[in-house]
């Protein structure tokens, strides 16, 4: 690309130019027909904005809090695996960018830098994501390491008892480096004559028996607040509140798990209504513009997280690239707030958007 990217989508093209095809496919791809993957983005486009005018927007304030942590804007970094495949500095570069942008990073359990290296590289507020392994002692150990290293919350991914079928990874026979957090504990040396090593690894190691009772067990081994990530229905949201989670992430893993699940923005309100303000609701999946951030907040999200855009920035230009991606989203969000007549995030209301359902009524 001849000129500097002017929006997040243009970073994707830069990433495509620098990444080996196998890795680019791994980062961009989704499950099966990739219907949910595409719809996640398109669903935002079907929501229209309803601006107010003649409001004094000479000062705008994007800042908000998540679990009591103040961040500069409601834009956080979602957990995405294996950052060193995108850039040699991997998650350390991403974490530094999070600190520079004053936002929260959720590290991936499948990170290529250790929990400790990421913690010592910067003072960003970090949440720790969790998958539960058949060997429960390993999950308990990483939770303790996260606590010891100042991570502020556990984000339990609940939509991946098995890995979604990512056909590009199968075709490419996707390989993966040893996961640094588990060196000497868990080997990725699994057999994969037929396809993705990532898929074979998950099949071999993840605990498919994980269930609601395990949240209670998890609470007994950590004092950190627990969020669950991968909620798409009001039934699950209600149950999550009942068992005492500290927050909910509406997510379909960016369309990488179960294809033909609804888009996250289309189910956000259902979840928010079910939760009734008892815990914060976050959202990820398909956020590519500041207007998307605004729409999610109007429909009740406390903040959003971005996954792939961060990787595109990282691949294109390391820490600086991630910073640019977050800054672009912040700039666009701030402009949207001003043009919608909302000086602060608390001024953004349901009536600032019109969804397809609204049109029907
Ligand atoms: C992910 N995601 C993910 N989620 C999770 O809970 N644990 C993980 O290890 C990963 N790994 C991962 C790798 C890659 C390459 C991608 C693209 C995604 C899902 C991620 O947290 C988030 O839900 C989506 O990425 C959000 O969608 P967008 O922003 O990518 O559209």
From TrEMBL:
<feature type="binding site">
    <location>
        <position position="229"/>
    </location>
    <ligand>
        <name>FMN</name>
    </ligand>
</feature>
<dbReference type="GO" id="GO:0010181">
    <property type="term" value="F:FMN binding"/>
</dbReference>
<feature type="binding site">
    <location>
        <position position="157"/>
    </location>
    <ligand>
        <name>FMN</name>
    </ligand>
</feature>
<dbReference type="GO" id="GO:0003973">
    <property type="term" value="F:(S)-2-hydroxy-acid oxidase activity"/>
</dbReference>
<dbReference type="InterPro" id="IPR013785">
    <property type="entry name" value="Aldolase_TIM"/>
</dbReference>
<feature type="binding site">
    <location>
        <position position="166"/>
    </location>
    <ligand>
        <name>glyoxylate</name>
    </ligand>
</feature>
<feature type="binding site">
    <location>
        <position position="131"/>
    </location>
    <ligand>
        <name>glyoxylate</name>
    </ligand>
</feature>
<dbReference type="InterPro" id="IPR037396">
    <property type="entry name" value="FMN_HAD"/>
</dbReference>
<protein>
    <recommendedName>
        <fullName>(S)-2-hydroxy-acid oxidase</fullName>
        <ecNumber>1.1.3.15</ecNumber>
    </recommendedName>
</protein>
<keyword id="KW-0285">Flavoprotein</keyword>
<feature type="binding site">
    <location>
        <position position="256"/>
    </location>
    <ligand>
        <name>glyoxylate</name>
    </ligand>
</feature>
<dbReference type="GO" id="GO:0042742">
    <property type="term" value="P:defense response to bacterium"/>
</dbReference>
<dbReference type="GO" id="GO:0005777">
    <property type="term" value="C:peroxisome"/>
</dbReference>
<keyword id="KW-0560">Oxidoreductase</keyword>
<dbReference type="GO" id="GO:0050665">
    <property type="term" value="P:hydrogen peroxide biosynthetic process"/>
</dbReference>
<dbReference type="Pfam" id="PF01070">
    <property type="entry name" value="FMN_dh"/>
</dbReference>
<feature type="binding site">
    <location>
        <position position="108"/>
    </location>
    <ligand>
        <name>FMN</name>
    </ligand>
</feature>
<dbReference type="InterPro" id="IPR000262">
    <property type="entry name" value="FMN-dep_DH"/>
</dbReference>
<keyword id="KW-0576">Peroxisome</keyword>
<feature type="binding site">
    <location>
        <position position="251"/>
    </location>
    <ligand>
        <name>FMN</name>
    </ligand>
</feature>
<feature type="domain" description="FMN hydroxy acid dehydrogenase">
    <location>
        <begin position="1"/>
        <end position="358"/>
    </location>
</feature>
<feature type="binding site">
    <location>
        <begin position="284"/>
        <end position="288"/>
    </location>
    <ligand>
        <name>FMN</name>
    </ligand>
</feature>
<comment type="similarity">
    <text>Belongs to the FMN-dependent alpha-hydroxy acid dehydrogenase family.</text>
</comment>
<feature type="binding site">
    <location>
        <begin position="307"/>
        <end position="308"/>
    </location>
    <ligand>
        <name>FMN</name>
    </ligand>
</feature>
<keyword id="KW-0288">FMN</keyword>
<feature type="binding site">
    <location>
        <begin position="79"/>
        <end position="81"/>
    </location>
    <ligand>
        <name>FMN</name>
    </ligand>
</feature>
<dbReference type="InterPro" id="IPR012133">
    <property type="entry name" value="Alpha-hydoxy_acid_DH_FMN"/>
</dbReference>
